[in-house]
Design goal:
Elements lengths: L16 E4 L13 E4 L4 E3 L2 E9 L9 E3 L5 E9 L5 E9 L5 E9 L6 E12 L2 E12 L8 E11 L7 E5 L8 E10 L5 E3 L3 E3 L7 E5 L3 E3 L10 E12 L3 E7 L1 E4 L2 E4 L2 H5 L8 E8 L5 E6 H4 L13 E4 L10 E4 L4 E3 L3 E3 L6 E12 L3 H6 L10 H4 L6 E2 L7 E2 L1
Parallel strand pairs: 9-20, 19-23
Antiparallel strand pairs: 1-9, 2-4, 3-4, 4-11, 5-6, 6-7, 7-8, 9-10, 10-11, 12-16, 12-28, 13-14, 13-15, 13-18, 17-18, 18-19, 20-21, 22-28, 23-25, 24-28, 26-27, 29-30
């Protein structure tokens, strides 16, 4: 993938994904005291789910707090004072015994005046033949709340090298729309050095209104630019869909987080397991309202923090400023190609200032629940169900206006 200069927008994973109702993050004097383990959850060799009350504005709980050992997954939560009266939270996740420690830091936390603010982080650690992926989400509620008005959710999954899953892309053209044409799907891969490279283009037949097409993406590919056989095998890390229909658009999708200590694209199949409420994920595909070329980069981890049952409907308008919208976390828009650079994030030369509309829907999924259960990792299908119900966004489109929450 080529490197772009000029304006750089780095997808710092889940950076302040504030998604619900009225959110006014005005710094205020807060004190964090500690954490209390909540009931429920699960802990198996292949994955875990755990949650804690976070006593964010009143005394309670303990810090640091360790849970899990001597089970399969250990979590250590630590609270400390931040600058300007904010709090710093650190979540450390370890797959036992002997797995690497995945440290997920949240700095400058402050509760909103009203509503709920949500932030999350992803991290992948490769060790031996195994892959560990950790995810942490912190939800802070404003307004009149009990003393423990914060909740921390921790998740993890462990896969062996032979536990690769077939990732399937899909593109849906809604009823009443013109056909989607000139469709090309391009997978990308991350090799053992962290380099990200393109796989071959996959041409797709036109998609008529009301129709959907899908296909498998190859799990691995050799990086032709890397002659070292020990490191040149790449694992699927992103996919790009180009299509023409009321303007041409190109959308690149990846889970962005820390991989072996560097900002990069996570394994697409393994990361998808951590967001599988319904065994598929849905993203809007946009076009520019003036039918000019549109390029979109999507950090799937940021986008999938919101409730997927509340997708914006087709033809919904969004105003984009400097390449982003507060109502589209994880989306980056430009008028020239967007690229991803390991260690930096998404790069774009020409961020969009204008309007876009929902044109179609992109899906991604891995095996059915029965397949996962037979492999002993059915726990991950539970992930996200608890906190998303608290973080729902209801949408409306004002007459003659743009997309807004209410």
């Amino acid at each position: 993938m080529k490197t772009l200069n000029s304006l750089t927008i780095a997808a710092r994973v889940f950076a302040c994904c504030s998604l619900v109702l009225i959110i006014v993050c005005v710094p205020q004097m807060v004190r964090g005291e500690g954490f209390v383990l909540l009931g429920g959850g699960s802990d198996t060799k292949s994955g875990f789910v755990r949650s804690h009350s976070y006593f964010f504005t009143a005394a309670g709980g303990a810090t640091p707090l360790t849970n899990g050992a001597p089970l399969n997954w250990s979590t250590v939560l630590t609270d400390a004072a931040g600058g300007g009266g904010t709090r710093n939270l650190t979540v450390a996740i370890t797959h036992l015994p002997g797995g690497p420690v995945m440290t997920l830091p949240f700095t400058g936390l402050v509760p909103p005046v009203a509503g709920v603010s949500v932030r999350g982080l992803l991290q992948q650690a490769n060790h031996g033949t195994g892959i560990d992926i950790g995810k942490a989400v912190v939800s802070l509620a404003g307004g009149v709340e009990p003393p423990a008005n914060g909740t921390v959710y921790e998740y993890g999954s462990h896969l062996e090298a032979n536990d690769r899953f077939q990732f399937k892309w899909s593109l849906r053209n809604p009823l009443g729309k013109t056909p989607l044409m000139a469709i090309v799907v391009t997978p990308s891969y991350r090799d053992g050095t962290g380099a990200v490279f393109n796989g071959p283009d996959i041409p797709v037949p036109d998609i008529a209104a009301g129709q959907r097409k899908e296909g498998d993406l190859p799990k691995t590919r050799t990086n032709p630019a890397n002659p070292n056989a020990a490191t040149n095998t790449g694992r699927l890390s992103d996919y790009r869909i180009r299509a023409v229909g009321s303007g041409d658009t190109e959308t690149s999708l990846a889970f962005v987080g820390e991989v072996d200590g560097m900002l990069n694209e996570l394994d697409l199949d393994a990361a998808t397991l951590l967001f599988m409420d319904n065994i598929e994920m849905l993203m809007p595909m946009f076009t520019s309202t003036d039918e000019s070329s549109l390029f979109v980069g999507v950090d799937l981890g940021q986008w999938l923090l919101q409730d997927q049952s509340m997708l914006p409907p087709v033809d919904t308008l969004f105003s984009i400023s400097a390449g982003t919208s507060p109502f589209l976390p994880g989306f980056f828009f430009a008028t020239t190609p967007i690229d991803f650079q390991p260690g930096v994030g998404y790069l774009m030369n020409d961020p969009l200032n204008g309007q876009v509309e929902v044109r179609a829907f992109i899906d991604g999924r891995v095996p059915e629940p029965s397949t996962l259960a037979l492999m002993g990792i059915g726990v991950v299908a539970m992930i996200g169900c608890g906190w998303r119900r608290r973080c729902r966004v209801h949408w409306r489109q004002p007459q003659g206006g743009c997309f807004a929450p209410y």
